Amino acid sequence: MVTLGNDFPPRAHYLVRWYGIRDFLVISPNPDDQIVGTEDRAKLLLSSVCLALSNSKCPLPAFVQMHHPQEKLCFGACIGGGFTTYFDMVHIVHIPPVCGTLSGLISLFKTKMSYSSQVALPPVDITIRFTYLINEWAPYAWPQLPPDITEELESTESFDLGKIPFGALEDPISEVQLSVTWPSLPEDVIIDSDVHSDLRPTSAPKWSVRMRWNDSPQCLMEDYLQHFVQLCDKKTTLNPASKNVFTEDEASARANFRDVLDRMAPQTALPVSFGALPRSAPEKVHDPHPNILGNEVLMETMGYIFLSSDDDQFEDKASFDDGMDVEPRLENMSTNTKLLELKENLCTMKTTHPGSLVWKLALASSYIYHKWGDSGAVEQLWVKVVSEIRHSWDNNYMLPRLEPGAPNLATCLLHQKLQMLNCCIERKMKRERRQKAVNVSAQAKSGSSESDEDEFYECPDEFRDEAKKDSTGTKHDLSPAGEVLPKPSETVGEGILRQCGNMTLLGTLKPLYIPVTQEPVPMTEDMLEEHAEALVQLGSNPEGAALRARMQSACLLSDMEAFKAANPGACLGDFVRWYSPRDWIAAVIDEVTGETQQEGHLSPRMQLPGNTWQEVWDTARPVPAHRQKRLFDDTKEAEKVLHYLISMGPASIASQLMPVLVHCALAQILDKANNGPPSLVATLEHIITKISTQLRGKAPKYKEILRLLYDAEVAIVRGESLRQKFDSMPHTDESSTGTGDPYPKQQPLTGKRRHSSENSPECQLRSFVLDLLEKPEADVPGAGKGPVGKVISKLFVDSQKIADTTPEAEHVSDYRFPVPVGREYILRARYARPTPASRPTPQRMYCVMAGNDFRLAGAFTNDLVFY
Question: Where is this chain compositionally biased, Polar residues type (predicted)?
Fold first, then answer.
């Protein structure tokens, strides 16, 4: 009760705040039982409590709850050490005139302590706290403007397609509470009466600020993502008529083909009829959906998705650097390093990399759906996108912003599908270039129009048997392509890439050559699942096992045939030495004599009966890679990808793109994380881990994911709101103490600035804002005379100007602090009770006045030994 450290705790039980105690017991009736509604019943219970405390020698104060718990009305007692402290309370809904000032409270406190008017009373120590409130802000205090719907519907220029909307539509700060405190004042050094008061906020030695936040402010990112998630639940499919859009280009090409033939034909030629030509769709397609987007918006969006830019690779890094100020980077290097690590961790999410084709497609699709609110708009965009992808395949254009190589299984399925299509385009381009080169070479040699070097062509099975015999009836080996192969003894190596070091064929001195082999077959994760499921369904019977081995050894057979073609007369041991060196046991040679003690041989597993490698080697024929049947049919796989894309409905499209949008949102949150509290970094680390786990599952819980993103967004917009309020206020100059504008200098709180010391106003403001975000109550350095205090004073003065709507307000130039919304007084003294012979004991009375609410809480101690 005497310690000043227990005064006005930021977060504590109301009994702690009113009596300054830390440990206590509260006895309250069961909610189903009758409440303690009368004072007599409360005194009876308190008497029983005092008896129990005395018998148990419990030193803790005990309280009896009266009326409803929301009324916060308790009576209590504490017995121990030869003293008894009684805790009394008064709560009324109006302020008595005699208790409205400090002088009246001091008089009441002394009257309660004294037992005789002839005894001199000790001096009273007083702690005072006034609370001021701001809940109305100046127009510049919140930067987020509502979107202009009319402008947005006209074009995409009013919205950045590369960003998700971010921020709060309403101020996340509900109110700011400023508490000014005068701690431990003697009663004779301050006057507070009906006539005069010395309690001015600017004279208080201690200021503290508490924030009241809006519980659930409406945020743009949360609304944006929530709206797109709803599309995932719509049970709609792509309109069949929309698929016919792909045939428009074919119809146009067919018309051009007719014009060319007409110009080539002579004048007397009969008209050519194209009725027998196959047609996949009518030339004029009737689309039941109207042109929702419009050509201008559609072309702008398609340009954003497909047109490559040299700055794309720097887009993600630049956005992150723009979100960090120069000064905080120098001051808090560890935090920024952690943010960079978290940004790198985002690359491990099963989505796509920033700036990729799928990344831009997700942002564009979500924007289209958010603006038009119709799944038909997404369908129209998707049809146009797939049509462009089909055009890229037909004309050998690589899809932009996709990493080369086989599909990356660490990315989302849509990204893998587009990578697969790029693989098909690349294989197709290589095949066509090689075929063109072969044709040119053949024409240069013999003028022939055909070439034997056709790569990976298919041969019907019915022609193979006919070609097995020549004119003399002699049988020859055939390649998988149906060509007659010469005998190995009559040929030299073919399809050689390079020599394999100094290795030679076993039993000969011929060098061992590495053959040119077919590239591995790229596969997406759904193809791998289908392949694994097909292998499982073959069963465990001998026929199934043989077929399974044949399916798994297709690539091995191709490599063996290429090896045999490059190394005529080679054996399985030669192949194993190159292909799987661990399965070859090298020869043992005596180091002294140099004699071979043990010849090199295959590993035991390679010598087992029925070994697959031996069986495949026996069936393999010497066929170079360019004459083999293709392991990877790029045309077939490309058509599969295109069919997969056009078969997706709006819900499937949204389900494929939603994980990418979550990744975009996380990247944007990390860009702005420096505007939030320091603890947000650890929170984001937990959020990223949890979301990464969710996105790797079959059915991510987007409701939980969006809640995590919303919490991070709210934390950031709170920091932005605080910074905006302090940044928009002119910072004070300590040398300006005269008349005129006391805020002559305008210096930004954020952004790039020059080097400043830790005691500079900018650093103090920045540190104060961080304290407000992290702590329930933040102390103001320098109170009202410091730079932070002067900015706060200006906020309150401007708020009072806004609240004053009287006609006389225009002529008022000297605005001061408003009337406090709450006044708190703590009166302390040491006084001998109940008699002058008693030992001096601590006496305390707490008073709070808020509006018409008045509460007194007294703790008066009696000496039980000397009375």
Answer: 438-449
